[in-house]
Amino acid sequence: MRLSAWVCVLIWLPVCILCSCATAPINSKNEIEKARQEFDDTSTIVANVDFIPQKAIYYDKLKTIYIELSDLQIKSKSTDEKRVKAECERIKKRCRDINAQVQKDIIKIFEQKIERMQTEPNKSNQRRVQYLNDTLKILNKPELNPDELQHIVVTWKKAEEQKTDILMNVSFGAGDYQLTAKGKKHLKSLFSNNIKRVNAQISKENIDIPLLLNFSFQILGYTDEIGFSSKSAKKLGKQCNISFKSDKQKNRRELNRCLSKLRAAKVGEYFHTLKSKDSHANSSNKMVKTNFIIKTVGKGEEMPDGLKDGRPRDERRRMCKIIFTYWKEVQTK
Predict the structure, then answer these.
(1) Are residues 152 and 171 in the same domain?
(2) pLDDT per residue as tens digits for the range 83-100
(3) Which of 139, 160, 181 is the last residue of a domain?
């Protein structure tokens, strides 16, 4: 081949390649698959944001996108491939818009949670605030990819989805705050059965992130409105450092408040003992650590919730109400 012929080949070959690329058919199937992947990612994110009130709105938007995507897949063979690509890009943008809005909603919710937790400082809230602040740093990134957002919502759901309150009661004798053998047996059964039930449920879950399982016992002590003998009043007053006044009713109320605190404290002490001895106190899942929070409050002569017809001497008022709550949170360093 002469030199002039090679020159012609070298000149026209790049031009031919460029022209062939420009006119090459767009792979509709690949474009639809990419759009479907973004749709699936957004669907997973929305499915896990139970804590967002606008979830129903996002579901409606996803439903519309799903119908359009299905129609596009059916019509793709008879539709211009450039138009298919344009439709896929529009669908992907709408999915990204949903992600961006979910991101804003989560930021707002996390900021509200932090503000609320800071008004009730305790170790559990401090850990949760730390986790939320660390997560907000990621959420505030201008370009947050779907995988990062999906990880955040799935992790938060695993940490927050399980929470429940269970009420239990234990009774006392008139003017007494010591637990009877029957009362201890009742409390031990309640404590062990509920902890065992929760741990059994947690063990069935697919937990692959470090979680802290919190067991909270809020113990509210109550009394009736019966007064005390001078000997009992003197003994109880000394225990609670009460300065007696001339007003007998006020003295009685102060003594009963003291008695209610002692009742709640006695149940709390017994729970601390059970916590260290119960074989079900720790989770079988190595990714889950348990934490016990035991809080006691004396309510005095206040009427317990659910006892509307309680009389001043009603023995049903001589009790402790125990509110058992459990929840999960992400472990932080």
Answers:
(1) no
(2) 888 999 999 999 999 999
(3) 160
Distance, CA of 69 to CA of 91 (rounded, Å): 8
Give me the phi and psi of 294, to 5 degrees please: -120, 115
Q: Are residues 41 and 91 in the same domain?
A: yes
Domain carrying residue 65 = 26-160
pLDDT (tens digit per residue) in 109-126:
889 888 888 887 776 677
Are residue 174 and residue 255 in the same domain, yes or no? yes
Q: Are residues 228 and 312 in the same domain?
A: yes
CATH code for the domain of 284: 3.30.1330.60
pLDDT at 194 over 90: no
Instruction: Answer yes or no: do 230 and 264 share one domain.
Output: yes
> Same domain for 135 and 182?
no
12 found inside a domain: no
Domain contains 18: no
For helices 81-118 and 146-160, the axis angle rounded to 10 degrees is 40
User: For the ranges 92-101, 239-248, 277-286, which has the lowest average pLDDT?
Assistant: 277-286
pTM above 0.70, yes or no: no
Number of domains in the chain: 2
